[in-house]
Amino acid sequence: MRTHYRRRSVQSGKGCSPFIPPETWYEPHEANTLDYEIVVEPAGQGYEHVLSPEQIRNRLAQLPEWMLRPLEVVQLSGMTRKKKTNPCYGMQWGSTLYLYPIEAGRVEYFTRPPRPSELIETKMYGGKWEVQPGLWKLIWSSRALEDYYLNNILIHELGHLLDDRNSSYVDRERYAEWFAIEYGYKPTRDQQR
After folding, report:
1. Nearest to 93, CA basis, from 32, 16, 12
2. Angle between helix 53-60 and helix 154-162 axes, rounded to 10 deg
3. What is the pTM of this model?
4. Cα 100 to Cα 90: distance, rounded to the nearest angstrom
5. Do 98 and 88 contact (CB within 8 A), yes or no?
6. Alpha-carbon torsion angle 77, 93, 162, 172, nearest 10
7. 140 in Cβ contact with 106 (< 8 Å)
8. What's the rounded Cα separation, in Å, for the pair 17 and 83?
9. 113 Cβ neighbours under 8 A, 6+ residues apart
10. What residues contact 114, with CB distance under 8 A and at least 6 apart?
11. Cross-strand pairs, 102
12. How far apart (Å, rounded) are the C-alpha atoms in residues 103 and 46?
């Protein structure tokens, strides 16, 4: 199970709790075709999916075919009460990528300051931080949030799917972060210039 973390409160450990069931398991077919499925669950009350299936297909179509061969399912998952306690943006499990919804107001609240890496990453994609005593708010415009999901979260999780060399958590995250910069952030910034 691989996750891209969305932390809202002080936690020990990293990311989604290992006690949260990963999601619906889609049995891999190992056919290595470009015919992946997109499954959309209801986002949940007070939440919205950031991307549409069409946006996902259009973004993935910009990548080389070899990157998409092992991908079988992209699921836009729903938010549950259990997931609210330790939410994340996305996860890769088997041949499936899971993308999670965000609060409908596109504002996330944190009870601790963002780590430097979180601050840099969210600012790269247009997230705005506001600080109040004991509270940090991450505010997204619709466009910035779509950019973040299309060119970071989706591509990061695809990087996990394609990483067949690394086995340690740190090395897998480092690879997925590099992959998201190389195949998500850089190409799209070149197009925006």
Report:
1. 16
2. 50
3. 0.84
4. 6
5. no
6. 110
7. yes
8. 9
9. 131, 136
10. 122, 129, 136, 138
11. 48
12. 6
In the chain, domain spans: 2-192
- The span from the CA of 143 to the CA of 112, in Å, is 26
What's the CA gap between 29 and 74, in Å, rounded? Answer: 14
Contacts of residue 140, Cβ cutoff 8 Å, sequence gap at least 6: 102, 106, 107, 108, 126, 127, 128, 148
Residue type, 143: R
- Terminal Cα distance for the chain, rounded: 36
Sheet with 107-110: list strands edge to edge. Answer: 107-110, 135-139, 128-132
Q: How many CB atoms lie within 10 A of CB 170?
A: 9
Give 117-172 pLDDT, tens digit per residue: 889 999 999 999 999 888 999 999 999 999 999 999 999 999 999 999 999 999 99
